[in-house]
C-alpha cells in the first residue's frame, strides 16, 4: 500500500469521524416515559400520534392529541369536534382487536382488564380505572402526565376557570346563593339513583360554580359514588336544587318518573314546592370529559336562573 493511498485513507477516515460527530443524532426508537397504570408501569410514547381511546376520548382530545379510534358511545359526545370524530373509527365495545390493529396505534387507552389483555399485543396499552378520572382538575393532571402535555392541560384549565367565572357573575347578578346545596338524581330502568360528584350529570360543573352536595349526598360521594334509593327515602336525600336526568326522550316520558311525580312524598319535597327541581337532557349531562364539563357550566347556570324566576 503506497504512502499516498495511506494518507488518502487516513483523511477519509478522519472526515467520516467528524461527520459522525457533527451529524444530528438519530431519535431513539424508545422515545418513551414510564407511566404507572392499573396494569403496571407502562412505557408510553412521549408524543403519541395515533391513539385509540375508549372511555376517555374527550380527555385525550382536550389535550390536542390525535385519536384514530374510539367507541360509538364516546364518539356520540355532542361536545367534541365533529369534524375530528368523522375521521375516527368505531373499534367496538368491547374493543375489537382486528379493528384496532388496522389503525396502527402507538398508544391504546382503556378502562377495563378484558380490553387490556387483547390490546397489549398490539401497542402500549394503559388501563385507567374510571375512579381516576372523576374529578375535573385531578383528571386533567393525570392525562397530562400520561400524554406528556402539561402546557395543553394548563391552557384548558385556564379556559375552564374563565368559563366558570363568567357563569358565577351571572348567578351573582341573578342573586342566586352559591351556598345552596344540590343533588343529582337519575331514573334508570325503573330505579332511582342518587349520585355523588364523580358520575357526570353536571355535578362537576356545580362544584366548580361553588355549590356543595347536601350532607347525605356527600356521604354517598365519599362511598361508592352512587346509591339506589327509594321514593320513600327521598326526603333524606333531598337538596335545595335537585337535578334529574332520565334516558327517556321528551316524546316518550319515563313511566317510573311520571309515577314518582304523582307520589305524595315527592310532592312534599321543598325543592318540588319551590320549583327547584331541574330536569336536564340525558345526552347533554351523561358525559363528563373536560369539554362536557365546561359546557355544562352554562347549562346548569341557565337552568338555575330559570328555576329561580
From TrEMBL:
Give the source's domain of life in one word. Bacteria
Sorted keywords for this record are: Signal, Transport
Q: Name one GO cellular component term.
A: outer membrane-bounded periplasmic space
Q: Name one Pfam family in it.
A: Peripla_BP_2
Q: Does the keyword Signal apply?
A: yes
Q: Where in the cell is it found?
A: Cell envelope
Q: Which InterPro entries match?
A: ABC_transptr_periplasmic_BD, Bact_iron-sidero_bind
Does the keyword Signal feature in the UniProt annotation? yes
Q: PROSITE patterns attached here?
A: FE_B12_PBP (PS50983)
User: What are the TM regions of this chain, as residue ranges?
Assistant: none
Q: Which GO terms describe its biological process?
A: iron coordination entity transport
Similarity field = Belongs to the bacterial solute-binding protein 8 family.
The protein in question is named: Iron ABC transporter substrate-binding protein
Amino acid at each position: 500500500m503506497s504512502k499516498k493511498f495511506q494518507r488518502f485513507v487516513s483523511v477519509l477516515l478522519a472526515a467520516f469521524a467528524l461527520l459522525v460527530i457533527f451529524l444530528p443524532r438519530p431519535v431513539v426508537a424508545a422515545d418513551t416515559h414510564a407511566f404507572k397504570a392499573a396494569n403496571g408501569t407502562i412505557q408510553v410514547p412521549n408524543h403519541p400520534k395515533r391513539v385509540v381511546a375508549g372511555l376517555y376520548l374527550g380527555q385525550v382530545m382536550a389535550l390536542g392529541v390525535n385519536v384514530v379510534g374510539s367507541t360509538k358511545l364516546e364518539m356520540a359526545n355532542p361536545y367534541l369536534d365533529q369534524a375530528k370524530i368523522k375521521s375516527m373509527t368505531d373499534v367496538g365495545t368491547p374493543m375489537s382487536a382486528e379493528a384496532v390493529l388496522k389503525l396502527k396505534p402507538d398508544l391504546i387507552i382503556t378502562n377495563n382488564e378484558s380490553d387490556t389483555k387483547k390490546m397489549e399485543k398490539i401497542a402500549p396499552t394503559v388501563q385507567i380505572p374510571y375512579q381516576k378520572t372523576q374529578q375535573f382538575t385531578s383528571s386533567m393532571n393525570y392525562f397530562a402526565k400520561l400524554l406528556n402535555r402539561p402546557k395543553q392541560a394548563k391552557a384548558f384549565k385556564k379556559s375552564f376557570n374563565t368559563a366558570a367565572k363568567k357563569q358565577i357573575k351571572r348567578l351573582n347578578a341573578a342573586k342566586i346563593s352559591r351556598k345552596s346545596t344540590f343533588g343529582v338524581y337519575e331514573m334508570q330502568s325503573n330505579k332511582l339513583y342518587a349520585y355523588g360528584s364523580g358520575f357526570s350529570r353536571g355535578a362537576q360543573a356545580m362544584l366548580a360554580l361553588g355549590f356543595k352536595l347536601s350532607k347525605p349526598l356527600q356521604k354517598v360521594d365519599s362511598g361508592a359514588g352512587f346509591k339506589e334509593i327509594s321514593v320513600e327515602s327521598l326526603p333524606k336525600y333531598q337538596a335545595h336544587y335537585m337535578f334529574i336526568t332520565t334516558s327517556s326522550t321528551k316524546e316518550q316520558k319515563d313511566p317510573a318518573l311520571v309515577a314518582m311525580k304523582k307520589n305524595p312524598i315527592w310532592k312534599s319535597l321543598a325543592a318540588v314546592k319551590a320549583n327547584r327541581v331541574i330536569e336536564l337532557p340525558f345526552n347533554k349531562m351523561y358525559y363528563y370529559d373536560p369539554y362536557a364539563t365546561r359546557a355544562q357550566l352554562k347549562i346548569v347556570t341557565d337552568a338555575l336562573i330559570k328555576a329561580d324566576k
